[in-house]
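Subject: two folds for Thursday's group meeting

Dear M.,

Sorry for the delay on this. The cluster queue was jammed most of the week, so I only got both jobs back this morning. I'm pasting them in the order they finished. Each block is the input sequence followed by the predicted structure tokens. Could you check whether the formatting survives your parser before we put anything on slides? The first protein is the one we discussed after the seminar.
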Amino acid sequence: DLELFRGDLLAALTADGDFRVPALREHVADLPALLAPALAVVGANALDSTLLARLAALPWRGNIAELEAFVRGLSRRPSVASAVTESELLEAIIDAPDDDELRLVYGDLLVSRGDQRGDLIQVQCRLALPAFHGDPALRAAEKRLLDAHQVAWAGPVATIAGTPSTKPEVTFRRGFVERIVTTDDVLARLGAVYRVAPLLSTLALKGRLSREHWVDPAIRRICALEVELPSLDEPEVTALSSHPYFDHLEALTVSTEAEFADNDPAIAEAHLQDLAASPHLAKLKTLRFTNHRFDARMTAVLTGDAAAWSIHHLALTACAIDDAAVTSLLDGPRASALQTLDLRGNPIGDAGRARLAARSDLVVQLD
């Protein structure tokens, strides 16, 4: 309300020249005074000196509005002291893996007993927010924590998922193990992996696949599978499309590190049809191929009537996609389900680009 605003301050604000409001991180010493009215709004008590010190150490990037939003979030969280046991809290997180509030409560619990995994949960949950994705200060904090503790934190998973000759790669997201890169023999003991990494969602398998390892029903808990195959003319493809334990997959990536030669044939249509028509892969929403040659007949299979899936996010990178392949892909009856399409690394001409541009509802990535 300008009528109630002090005249001298209003004059200073409206005068020509620069006026800069400093970021909160530059005045963390003011946190106690700034927190008092914010806490009063949500009916919370004052914070003790230990918690204030922890708040001051956070990589604040914003202003008073950010602080007030943070306090409101704190007020909505249940008290760790009153709350459920640690095992009950973990069960709740497993049942609702997308609920970061539960993860943050668990992080508070770990921090309260001096476990820095709690700090990792808090940092990575914040990084998962669009406003903070890639934030340099948070990325630096994440790196410090992982450099110091990742080997120990990933130890139980690595012991089970690895072999004497293979050391798995373990990725933490939002504070928990979410992705493992290893060989396919892990599928035979995946239940044991889930006992120490219950929020594992992505499994990346290197090397050849062997169906003899696909015996553990815990395979059904995998949401995303990444495999490297020299081609789709492989018995593993038929096995993948026919195995009932993959009926919960939401994302599949099939790639090869080797680039194909110009005279290499396109992938066998029959094998791709097996994948597309498989009832066990009907829940797939994300599909990615890299370094596999696709012609117009192949792309037609992906969005054809016979496909059991309805893909929302499709990537065909470095797959020799030309204008004819683009046309057959977009003409398929299931093409209307596509939301994003990654076609980088392909020789798409003007005609193909025009067809893609005509789909205004489709987010397309091109070179």
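Second protein, same layout:
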Amino acid sequence: MEPERGGVVLDQAQHAASSRRLRNFPRAAAGLRHSRAPCARRVGPLAAVPPQGRRGGRSDHLRRIGDFGSDYFSTRQVSRLVKAWQPQFIITLGDNNYPSGAAETIDRNVGQFYHEFIFPYQGRYGAGAQSNRFFPCLGNHDWIATNARPYLDYFTLPGNERYYTLTRGPVQLFCVDSDKHEPDGCTFDSPQGQWFQRQLAESK
């Protein structure tokens, strides 16, 4: 468990190399403001910041997982650990569906373990959530199959679903797509980069 930061408890499941890709707000903002390098070099797929005026008070618990999308025994173990912590919601750091992001594997690799957090859920592993509590970010493996179409069809996410922001409790999340296949780009002056800068400027 990480310490509380501005009323937000960022607990996490330790799995694979997920820790390399979460960046906090100041570093993410600095990366966009001072570099034209692809955002994969400066910004991980997800940044989190407590909105101004919401510091203190209650804490919302989230879990983050990354590089998890396989039907392995270890994946089941991690999912049980994550759910035992009873998070309000789960975020992912990419590579949700190994090996190639295919439609025929996504429910087995994701829904089997986290269906009760997904809305709307139409898979075969049980009931879904009443409202969505599962917020993935795209990884390069998710892009392999037909331009990430299975991912986009499976999940219902904010915005264009490839990159987005949402607020849950006292935390605002920014999920950005750092893959070279992202049609809106991921450089400072790309459509996605400009969107990210606007969202950061408007964050309260």
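Two things I noticed about the second structure. The mean pLDDT is 80. The two ends are 26 Å apart (CA to CA).

Cheers,
T.
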